Predict the 3D structure of the following.
Amino acid sequence: MDQETAKIIINDNVHELPVITGSEGERGIDISRLRALTNYVTFDQGFGNTASCSSAITFLDGEAGILRYRGYPIEQLAEHSSFLETAYLLIYGHLPTAKQLREFSGLFTNHSMIHEDMKNVFKGYPSTAHPMGILASMVCSLSAYYPGIDLVDPTPKQFDGIATQLMSKIRTIAAFAYKKSIGEPFVYPREDLEYVPNFLNMMFSSPTRQYKIYDEVVTALKVLLILHADHEQNCSTSTVRLVGSAKANLFASISAGICALWGPLHGGANEAVLDMLETIHKEGSGIDKYIDMAKDKSSSFLLMGVGHRVYKSFDPRAKIIKKCAHDLLHKLGINDPLLEIAIKIEEKVLKDPYFIERNLYPNVDFYSGIIYKAIGIPKDMFTVMFAIGRMPGWIAHWKEMVEAPGGMKIGRPRQIYVGAKTRDFVPINKR
Ligand code: ACO
């Protein structure tokens, strides 16, 4: 078959552009030479229609509600895989053998401690500091602790070490940030515990209290981490790629991704959902007022946890999380009125023409906060949990970008300038 092309006509001049086809049949018009050919650029605010790279990590079809990591459906990974196995899959592109997983897991265990000096940095934060701010700066600070390693161009072995240390240490930093906020002493990681139980122990044990680790809680948290592990070119991953494209090291690039994730329109939505559900519950006047407010164009209120830039039928992660929330609350014997409110909102949203016409459905964050709350994780740690889960995805994208055949290219979008035309400076006494 002939190579497909697209034609663009500008002032009667026809320009032919190549079409790139992905492995799932997705097609994109390659405009990389458009400016050179025509002196025009494309305009796409929010990049809703722009593929910034080609990637072999995650496939998602927002219309069909499909999400796959390296070809494996998210439903199968959530049910059968461990978080570390999924992390390995995302980063290295294939499922690990038993030996590979053992070695990978060993690297985590050996490096879960953070440098003792870093504990002093924690001391400098006020107890009211948001843990996402602490996490972002601590992850960037980690880069100071690898003398002699080329963090910009690590060898494959060095990369394995840095990547696993980052995933392992972020869990310790997150738990320490929480302990700092409640004024309790830090609990160190334990070599005998796996990834999720180790985190729970650092969060909830203390010198006077041994936290009992329930299998149901471990399973729920594992599922949440897997569901958050990657989501192709979302805001924070695009940030990691953009910062990394300047040859910033892995720690700096991921620290920037954490900052992007913090925003309530992205990873911060899980916190915002719980705020919204709590307000509705406290008011006690039902959900209709909030549904109406979300539909009212004169109000800036949005139903948090509803809508998604790419999922326009349903978010497959929300489906899994909804069931997970039900199962966990049932097993722990918790009757949470917020879950009832969430279910009622979902029912209304699915029937209301406003949301149907705009393809707005509950997203991954709609139910995740209810699970975190049931586990005892405080609201301002929700986005931190998201960051721990997203770590393998960010690392996989950074690796894919720096290893891209033909080398990587610094990210540098164009703009359409709409500001003042040239004018002469006026001295202050004449203005
Ligand atoms: N409540 C009410 N109306 C909404 C909502 C919502 N949550 N989301 C979108 N809309 C409306 C918009 O007002 C717009 O209406 P209009 O066409 O009449 O102007 C229409 O739906 C399309 O919305 P856009 O903003 O163009 O959709 P976009 O794809 O840019 O935004 C986003 C997606 C940011 C997720 C948005 O739906 C939103 O803000 N949702 C709430 C926040 C949230 O849950 N974020 C988490 C996303 S998932 C994640 O990052 C992990």
Observations:
- Residues 21 and 243 are 27 Å apart (CA to CA).
- The beta strands are 5-10, 13-21, 27-29, 58-61, 66-69, 72-73.
